[in-house]
Write a structure and sequence with these properties.
Structural class: mainly beta
Shape: globular
CATH architecture: Beta Barrel
CATH topology: OB fold (Dihydrolipoamide Acetyltransferase, E2P)
Largest sheet: 5 strands, mixed, barrel
Number of domains: 1
Distance between the termini: 54 Å
Number of strands: 8
Order of helices and strands: EEEEEEHEE
Radius of gyration: 17 Å
Amino acid sequence: MGINLNQVAVTGNLTRAPEKIENASIALTKFRLAVNGSKPDGNGGYVDDPNYFDVVCFNGTAANVEKFLDKGSRVCVSGRLNWSEWTTKDGDKRQSVEIVGNTVEFLDPKKAD
């Protein structure tokens, strides 16, 4: 049997301020990351092709993200992918994949007051 590997690293900008999720047992912060890319435009040039990723961080990493980052902040997130599935109130099945950020490197944190 082969080795299973679930690691991801992406660099991008926060699309909005991090959201602190109230939880009695652990610190939890979520944010969305825009990762810029490009693709051929069919005329010999390229056009922007951004990708968006939801990121969740826990404990100390979550607290630091909330404290030091804001909309537009540039970061490098390393972690793993987490897939989830649920059924809506209307009975529709939904799925999502998010990045569980083990480390978040602040590439330009917001300035201290």
